[in-house]
Each structure stands twice: as structure tokens, then as C-alpha cells.
Amino acid sequence: MRAGGLLHHLGQGLVALLFLLTLAQGAGAQGAGVPDARNQRLLEEKRVVMAADNIYPRTHFAQIITQPQATLFRLTQGVVGRMHGELIACSLCTQLPNALDGSLVTYTDEAGRLVTRAVFDLLPNLRWGDGAPLELGDLEFGLTVAKRYPPLILDPTGITSRIRSMRMVGERRLEVVYDGVLCKEQLFVPPPLPRRLEEPLYSADPATYFQRTLYFTKRTHPGLYLGPYVIEAETAPSVIKLRRNPYYAGPAPYFEHIDMLFGDPAAAEQGLLDGTIDILLPKSVREDALIRFTKERRDSFKVIWSPSSTLTWLTPNFDHPALGDRQVREALYLALDREAMVRDLTLGTSLVAPGYLHPGLPAYTAGFPRYGHDPVRAAYLLDMAGWRRDKAGQRRNAAGQLLEMTVSYRAGDRSVGQALAAAWRAAGFAITLKEETDIIGTFRARKFDMVLSSITYVANSPSMPLYFLSNSIPSAENGMQGLNFAGNRTPGLDRAIERIDRAGCTREDLREAWLGFQKELMTELPRMPMWFNSVGTVFTNRLEGVGNPPFGDPVLTVQRWRPKRAAAPARP
């Protein structure tokens, strides 16, 4: 063989050897047997795959009711004001209005009523995903639709009803006037909706609009979205594909595509291990798997736990013959070993709730009644309330009526429901468990005894007091509107809520007002706070810039996500 041919073959061999070594290094970085397709997908396709949940969001529109809907909303929509329950401030603005520069002012109007004027400086060149500019009419139409429907549908903050007027006072300056005193953390404007696309559908029949909106019937229309991504395709009930919005006015994310998968938690866990999935979002994987990843697989994955202001709580119906009695409610609360429930049911990742506010939130102040596990006092209170044990150990009143109730819960909360039933049966209650497919409908109809559910809120959101106001009880007279599903009528709570509404925006004023509110709540127990959930998210180590913002959804950091490039091999 000639020298040139020999060198040619040696060169081919060296190239092949180097190629094999590169593959081996890539496989070793992620673990033996895992294909290197993940690197190609992250670096070349600029595509990231996340397991989102096992519940497929049929629509998200602007509804933030389930976690999948909320995640989809945050990836595809924009926010004017602070997002409810999250530390995200005006993604469509340069900054939140504030008192320092005069963009947030409280004054008394001609009728002697307090009002708040907020001016939002919007980002330049705001456009929908089809290139059409955002107009004032889109913001006004979003407000019209939000006011047509009850709270928690388009406005989880409860602030929409306070908006008095909205207008542009400059090329990019939106002025919103609210009734009452609002601080910058409370400012909220309902999500804008593309008037040119949606108003004809709404005007045809507002009552059935949610069933006919394009957000439900044609979600791949790019003109529906203002956020960093638009929905490109979907295959129900398992996949939603997003692509980067070329008209997004904020910082552009690195990844051009996001695939959201919905399915079995075990399959999601396996997908992360075999390299077909890069992220497991909260609710997409079992908590025991999160613990396992945390302990055993730190070399390949990063598990980030973040505190959450999502409160798991119990709602008694005050129309129930026994639950309207405060002594019975306290006995129910004392009968629960919440420390053990958190340890056994959430693997210790949740925080037993001292009250209704997370201790990490600014308005939290200690100094209100606390309740631990005290079955002896629980038995005493039930005796004092006239519910005494019979020979079989069950409690009855003087008329012989059984102390019984049905505990309703959402799918996925059965283990918690069973723990509640066991504790309360031991205290002498007759308990029936009922899994609800429509927990919101159950609340609104007020056809329940006790409901286990969760709520996400910010410390000084006006939506929190709305759950307890005497005039906020759903009834036939008000069209079953209002959020006071328990049905409590407590003058002391009403006065405490009024003090919150009139409090100033300084930390001292807010803490004092909210402390009074918490004292009334923990004395009367119109609802019983259980624990604050923690959020666990698993990321492959091949991603950087990931993390959970405090009290926030991990997708809020999506614009910082980047693939981690392999380090250059050391020179010999």
C-alpha cells in the first residue's frame, strides 16, 4: 500500500476513534444506556420536553383553575399587573406602577369615595402571535368578558369588580382606575383577549361563549397569544406542542420548541431516565419519585423544592346541623394529627399551616390562636356541644341523631380523605367519603358537608377575604355568586375584612390589619387550614438557568433556560 493510502486509512481510523470517544463521553455524562438524542434535541433542534401533568388541559383561555391550565397560560399569555399567587410583575409592562414616581395614586373622588389610579407603562411593539398589534379594545374586551363571569374563572384575584375605568393616556401608557385602596402588589388587569377574533363569538351568545371560544375550538391560531410561546399543534389527550412566538415583546427564550406531555407519572419518570423527557413539572410525578431523584440521582438530575402559598384546607358547610357549631369545628380540627399527615402523606415536604397565611409572606404576623393534635380536648368539646358517644362509640345528640357527614375531595386526594376519615371516625363521627369530578360545581351548589381542597393566593390579595364575607354567600337570590361557600355569617370577620380594605400600603399598616383578620379566622374557624404544599420539579443536568421562583411556577424562568454545553476536553 502506498504511503498516501496508508495515511488516508489511518486518518479515517483516528476520526472514527475520536467519534466513538465523543459518544462514550456523552453517554457517560448522562448514564450508561441513555441515548445521546437528548443533546441533539436541546442543542440542534432547540427543543425541550416536559412532563406537565396527568390531566390534559382541554382549554386554558385565561382560566387558572388547574395546574396544567396555569402552566399553559404562563407560557403563552402575558400579564398586566401581578399574577395571582405568583411573584410575576407585569410581563407586558416595563414595571409595576408605584407611589414613588406618581404612577400609583390613591385619592377621594367627587362622591367622597376612595379610588386608586394606576398607570402601567406597556412594553413597546406589543403584538399577538399573528403579528396584529395589541390595542386598547383587546384590554377592554378582556375586562368585559371577565366581568361577565364569576370570580376564579377569568380573575382569581377578585379585583376585576373594582375596575372603574380603563384608557390610554399616552402611546404606551395604560391608566386603570380602581374603587378602594390598592397597593402595587394587588394591581391586576384581566388578560387581554383578541377582540377581532373573539368578540363576534362572545356577542352571539355570552352564556355559551366558553364552549365556542377559539381558545377551546381552535387553539393553534397564533393570534390568540401574547406570551413567549404559541400553541403549534396538539394531540389530545397526551401532547401539546409549543413554538416560540416571533412577535413576543419580552426577552426571547432560547428554546424554539416546548413539548408538553400529559400522562402516567410512572411513564414520565421513565422518560426522564431514558432521555426522552427533560423536565418533570409538579403534579407530573409522584412525590416518592421526587424523593428518590433527590437522594439517588444527583449526578444526572436536579430536584428543586420551592415553598408554595398553595394552602390545603377544609371547608365545612355551616348549614350542616352540627358544623355550624364552633365547638364541633374546633373538635374536628383538634382530632387531626397534621404533623403525622404531612410526614406520611407528603413525605414531609409540606409545611403544617399555623394559620391561613404562609409564614414567608409579608403580611404574616404571629399572635393568633394555634391548634395542635389534642383528641382529649376534641372529645370534651363534642360532649359540651351535646354530641355524646353511644354504646357503639358513635356520637349522637339528645334526639338520637347520628353525628355524620360526607367528606368530598378531588381526584388524587383520596389518601388524604382516608386519613381524615380515620381520625374523625376515631372521634365518634360517622364519615362517608365522596370523590368529586367538579369541585368548583360542588362548592357553588353548596350541596356538601365538608370539602377538602386547595387555594393559591398572595398575602394581601383581595380574593382571600372574599371567601369569608357574610354578603358573599352563593344563593339563588344572587345567582349562586360569591366565594363564601362555607356560608358563615360572622360580624367580627366582616369588620376585620373592612379594616384590611381601608389599610394603607405600608408594611406596618398591612401587618396590623391582616393580623386582626387572622385572629378572627383562627378563633371562628370558618375553614380549617391544613398545610402549605411545596413544589418539586426535576430537571436534567443538561439544562442550566432553571429554578423555581419563590411561591411560583417553575416555567416562570423559561426565558433563562439554556442547554449546558459539554466542557472542552483537556489538552494532553
Descriptors:
Solute-binding protein family 5 domain-containing protein, eleven-stranded mixed sheet, 17 helices, SBP_5, alpha+beta, D-Maltodextrin-Binding Protein, domain 2, 572 residues, disordered N terminus, SBP_5_dom, peptide transmembrane transporter activity, 3 domains, Dipeptide-binding Protein, domain 3, Dipeptide-binding Protein, domain 1
Unreliable spans are 1-35
For the sheet with most strands, the description reads:
11 strands, mixed
Q: Based on CA inertia axes, which overall geometry fits?
A: globular
Counting DSSP E segments of at least 2 residues, the number of strands comes to 21
- Supply the CATH architecture of the largest domain: Roll
In words, what does this structure look like?
By secondary structure, the protein is an alpha+beta fold. The chain folds into three domains: 43-57 and 227-300 and 541-563, D-Maltodextrin-Binding Protein, domain 2 (3-Layer(aba) Sandwich); 79-198, Dipeptide-binding Protein, domain 1; 308-533, Roll (Dipeptide-binding Protein, domain 3), CATH 3.10.105.10. Helices cover 31% and strands 21% of the residues. It is built from 17 helices and 21 strands. The strands form five sheets. Strands 1, 8, 9, 10, 11, 12, 13, 16, 17, 18 and 19 form an eleven-stranded mixed beta sheet that branches. A four-stranded antiparallel beta sheet has the order 3-4-6-5, covered by helices on one side. It is globular.
